[in-house]
Structure formats: structure tokens, C-alpha cells
């Protein structure tokens, strides 16, 4: 039996297979999922990990034992599962551990219409009921229908972005042996794109590099290929292909804040005056540009549950995070890295300038990127940082500690799962950013020694 208390996180289920997550556990979770959601039908998809098929099949057995019919979509990305849940009007479950190593797997769950299920919206109820159902024989009840949704997913995404006017583009895509290798060819089909694929072979052992584009070392192959092939841009997807990282024609990373501002500008052109969501560690350029474009910026805590909840509350047309998650009202308020990539392709392809020039207008400040420090006593570290900056800026504790001074800001917040403090700093010039960054790190470092 798996360890339910350990694998049920704040927003999803994730653990080592089979020590923490095994087939009997998945079967019990399937039965509990149907009971808690009250679903008569559900949709299930999975990624390319070796453990995903047996775990998904066990989950389906559990769901059927409670009388639910199952639409089995087979291989898919997480945003394909959201498309399935939204278009079919069914609760859904995606089997994936995203960018985690091969020995991990997990489940991302949603209600009909891709409404997320988290700790305070049913996930704990599913965990508790699953604990009661482990080992209970699963008698088949509902039916299973296998349905290939890949083409419908690709067609739907292309209805949300006008790609009719783009010029021919050379694009390198690094799928990291993840689900982008399955979805990119379908989405790009028929577009004037010369595609250079890197690591499109589906392999849950990730033989080339981790499928986590937020880590710079995982972008090196893509950056080299873009420059060597004189490509117009590069795209990197994570394991379940719901996040997308962008590389310009010079092999340089385009910050997710710049992508957020770019997509926000395009969405505001279609929906004037709309609300745009951004988390508190995206660049200050994002709310500035949103206001300049006539939109209403709304700042949230870090985390997709906060973004999605705020989008639903405000009716926001778009939301972006520093982690390269991008959320769209027209995609059931769910996130889709592929849809963000199509916006970038459209913005680049509708004119003749290189991508570096296109995104320059959205990159106004110098940022540190996220820096993690191992700290035994996080509270004491935060207290010392507060004391050091007490008379130098405005304090905000929406999520950790944000201090804003003249021409700079930083956020220092604790990890929810590890003894880490995460620092993000930004300033109008690089020397100020480095000075603020190094001062905070020195204080944190003194505490952790």
C-alpha cells in the first residue's frame, strides 16, 4: 500500500513508485475520486512514464467499481487533459509527475470544466476516502471508451490564436523526452514552421536531461541548436508539457515575465480593459505594461491554485507566473504552455524583426532569478532581513516578505516542502539588483551557518 499522507500534496498527488504510490493505492483513489466528485463519467490521460499505464489502469478500475464510465484518452499532456475536461464537461485525472525524476509519478485532478481540485477543494476528502477503500475489491461497473483527443486538442488551440499571417519560421523544440514530443507535431501541423526536434522520443527515464526548463543546465542543448541552426527561436517543454520556456535567436532565455507581458498585450488587444493576473515575483514591468495597454493588473501569491482562483473571481482574460505557467480564460482558466508558445510564434511571425527585438520592450528591469538557500530557521532569517531593511522600503507580506525601495524590490519566501528560502530580486539597473541580492543572501547565509 502506498503512503497516502505523504503523496497527497497541496495541489496534486505525487510520490515514488511503488514505495509511496502503487496500483492498489491508485485503484482506491479512483474509487474515492468518483465518490467525492459524484461523477457519472470521467476522463483520464497519462504521460510517457513506465509506471503511468499500470497506475492509470488501476485508477480506472477503481472509478468503474463505483459505477462511473471512463473516457480513456491515453497519452497526453496535462493541458490536453484540461482540454478534455473542458470540452467534454467531465472531471479529469492526469497521470504525471511533471518534471520529477523517472521513479516518481502522480495525479493532477480537476472537476468538470478543468476546475482544479486542491487541498481545500476536495483533495483531502479524496485522500481520506481512499484510505478507507484500499484493499476493497473493485467489481467492474462502468464502461471504458478509448478516445483519441490529440487532434481535437490541436485544432482547438489553433482557434484561440490567429496564426494566418505568420511568415515562415525556423523553430527548435526541446521536448526533453516528455509529452511535447507527442503534442508539438500535431499542434504545428500545417503551420509555416521548419521544425527541428530535440529529444522527441517519449522516454520517462529522461536519458538526455531533466524535463525541467526552469533549470538553466537543461536549456543548454536547445540554446546551442538555435544558434547553430540559425533558428528564429527555441521552445522547451517540461515533462507533461504544460510549461514552456522561450529562447531567442541569439540563444538567450526570454524571461517568463516578458512572455507574460507579451501575451497580456495580445489578449488585451482582443479584450480591451480586461483583468490580467500575475504573481508577486513576476517583473514590475508586467503590471506597468498591463496598465499602459488599458488593462487591470491583479497581483497574487505564488501557486497555480491562487492564480486560477483569482482568475475565476475576477474573470481575468490571462494570467502568468515566473515559472512559465500561463493561464487563459478561453482555455477554461487553465494553463497551457503550448498556447503561450503559439502567441509567441504569432507575435514574431506577424512582423520581420527578430525575437530579441520583439521582447525587448517587455524587458525593462534586471532580475536575479530565483535563488534558493538552505536555512534551518526560516522565521529567524526573515526576522533578521526585516530588521536590516526596516527603514529602507515598504513591507508587504502577501507571500513571504516583499520589500520595495526606490528602483528595486525583493521577495523572500519559505518553501512549502523543503527547508529553503527562495529569493527573487529586481532593480532598474544591474548593479543595484546585485547589491540588494547579495545583501539579503549575506543575511540569510549568516543565519544558516
Automatic annotation (TrEMBL):
<keyword id="KW-0413">Isomerase</keyword>
<dbReference type="GO" id="GO:0004615">
    <property type="term" value="F:phosphomannomutase activity"/>
</dbReference>
<feature type="domain" description="Alpha-D-phosphohexomutase C-terminal">
    <location>
        <begin position="370"/>
        <end position="441"/>
    </location>
</feature>
<keyword id="KW-0479">Metal-binding</keyword>
<dbReference type="InterPro" id="IPR005844">
    <property type="entry name" value="A-D-PHexomutase_a/b/a-I"/>
</dbReference>
<feature type="domain" description="Alpha-D-phosphohexomutase alpha/beta/alpha">
    <location>
        <begin position="259"/>
        <end position="365"/>
    </location>
</feature>
<dbReference type="GO" id="GO:0046872">
    <property type="term" value="F:metal ion binding"/>
</dbReference>
<protein>
    <submittedName>
        <fullName>Phosphomannomutase</fullName>
        <ecNumber>5.4.2.8</ecNumber>
    </submittedName>
</protein>
<dbReference type="InterPro" id="IPR005846">
    <property type="entry name" value="A-D-PHexomutase_a/b/a-III"/>
</dbReference>
<dbReference type="Pfam" id="PF02879">
    <property type="entry name" value="PGM_PMM_II"/>
</dbReference>
<dbReference type="InterPro" id="IPR005845">
    <property type="entry name" value="A-D-PHexomutase_a/b/a-II"/>
</dbReference>
<comment type="similarity">
    <text>Belongs to the phosphohexose mutase family.</text>
</comment>
<dbReference type="InterPro" id="IPR005841">
    <property type="entry name" value="Alpha-D-phosphohexomutase_SF"/>
</dbReference>
<dbReference type="InterPro" id="IPR005843">
    <property type="entry name" value="A-D-PHexomutase_C"/>
</dbReference>
<feature type="domain" description="Alpha-D-phosphohexomutase alpha/beta/alpha">
    <location>
        <begin position="6"/>
        <end position="121"/>
    </location>
</feature>
<dbReference type="GO" id="GO:0005975">
    <property type="term" value="P:carbohydrate metabolic process"/>
</dbReference>
<dbReference type="Pfam" id="PF02878">
    <property type="entry name" value="PGM_PMM_I"/>
</dbReference>
<keyword id="KW-0597">Phosphoprotein</keyword>
<dbReference type="Pfam" id="PF00408">
    <property type="entry name" value="PGM_PMM_IV"/>
</dbReference>
<dbReference type="Pfam" id="PF02880">
    <property type="entry name" value="PGM_PMM_III"/>
</dbReference>
<feature type="domain" description="Alpha-D-phosphohexomutase alpha/beta/alpha">
    <location>
        <begin position="152"/>
        <end position="251"/>
    </location>
</feature>
<keyword id="KW-0460">Magnesium</keyword>
<dbReference type="InterPro" id="IPR036900">
    <property type="entry name" value="A-D-PHexomutase_C_sf"/>
</dbReference>
<dbReference type="InterPro" id="IPR016055">
    <property type="entry name" value="A-D-PHexomutase_a/b/a-I/II/III"/>
</dbReference>
Amino acid at each position: 500500500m502506498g503512503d497516502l499522507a505523504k503523496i497527497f500534496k497541496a495541489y496534486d498527488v505525487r510520490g515514488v513508485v511503488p514505495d509511496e504510490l502503487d496500483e492498489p493505492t491508485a485503484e482506491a483513489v479512483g474509487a474515492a475520486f468518483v465518490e467525492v466528485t459524484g461523477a457519472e463519467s470521467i476522463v483520464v490521460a497519462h504521460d510517457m512514464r513506465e509506471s503511468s499505464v499500470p497506475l492509470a489502469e488501476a485508477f480506472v478500475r477503481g472509478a468503474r467499481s463505483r459505477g462511473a464510465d471512463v473516457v480513456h484518452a491515453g497519452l497526453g499532456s496535462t493541458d490536453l487533459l484540461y482540454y478534455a475536461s473542458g470540452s467534454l464537461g467531465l472531471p479529469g485525472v492526469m497521470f504525471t509527475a511533471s518534471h520529477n525524476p523517472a521513479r516518481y509519478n502522480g495525479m493532477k485532478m480537476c472537476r468538470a470544466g478543468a476546475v482544479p481540485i486542491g487541498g481545500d477543494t476536495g483533495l483531502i476528502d479524496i485522500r481520506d476516502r481512499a484510505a478507507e477503500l484500499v484493499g476493497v475489491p473493485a467489481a467492474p461497473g462502468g464502461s471504458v471508451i478509448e478516445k483519441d483527443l490529440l487532434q481535437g486538442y490541436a485544432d482547438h488551440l489553433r482557434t484561440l490564436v490567429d496564426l494566418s499571417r505568420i511568415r515562415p519560421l525556423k523553430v527548435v523544440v526541446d521536448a526533453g523526452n516528455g509529452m511535447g514530443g507527442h503534442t508539438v507535431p500535431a499542434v504545428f501541423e500545417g503551420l509555416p514552421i521548419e521544425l527541428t526536434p530535440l529529444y522527441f522520443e517519449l522516454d520517462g527515464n529522461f536519458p538526455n536531461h531533466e524535463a525541467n526548463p526552469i533549470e538553466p543546465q537543461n536549456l543548454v542543448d536547445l540554446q546551442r541548436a538555435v544558434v547553430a541552426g540559425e533558428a528564429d527561436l527555441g521552445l522547451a517543454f517540461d515533462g507533461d508539457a504544460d510549461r514552456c520556456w522561450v529562447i531567442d535567436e541569439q540563444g538567450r532565455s526570454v524571461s517568463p515575465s516578458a512572455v507574460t507581458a507579451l501575451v497580456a498585450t495580445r489578449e488585451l488587444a482582443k479584450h480591451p480593459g480586461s483583468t490580467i493576473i500575475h504573481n508577486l515575483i513576476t517583473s514590475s514591468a508586467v503590471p506597468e505594461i498591463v496598465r499602459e495597454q488599458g488593462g487591470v493588473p491583479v497581483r497574487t501569491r505564488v501557486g497555480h491554485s491562487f492564480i486560477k482562483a483569482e482568475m475565476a473571481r475576477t474573470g481575468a482574460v490571462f494570467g502568468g507566473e515566473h515559472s512559465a505557467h500561463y493561464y487563459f480564460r478561453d482555455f477554461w482558466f487553465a494553463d497551457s504552455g503550448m498556447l503561450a508558445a503559439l502567441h509567441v510564434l504569432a507575435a514574431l511571425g506577424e512582423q520581420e524583426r527578430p525575437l530579441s527585438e520583439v521582447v525587448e520592450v517587455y524587458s525593462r528591469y534586471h532580475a536575479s532569478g530565483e535563488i534558493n538557500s538552505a536555512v534551518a530557521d526560516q522565521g529567524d532569517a526573515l526576522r533578521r532581513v526585516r530588521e536590516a531593511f526596516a527603514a529602507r522600503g515598504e513591507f508587504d507580506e502577501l507571500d513571504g516578505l516583499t520589500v520595495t525601495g526606490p528602483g528595486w524590490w525583493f521577495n523572500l519566501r519559505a518553501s512549502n516542502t523543503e527547508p529553503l528560502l527562495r529569493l527573487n530580486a529586481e532593480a532598474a539597473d544591474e548593479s543595484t539588483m546585485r547589491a540588494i541580492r547579495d545583501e539579503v543572501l549575506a543575511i540569510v547565509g549568516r543565519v544558516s551557518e
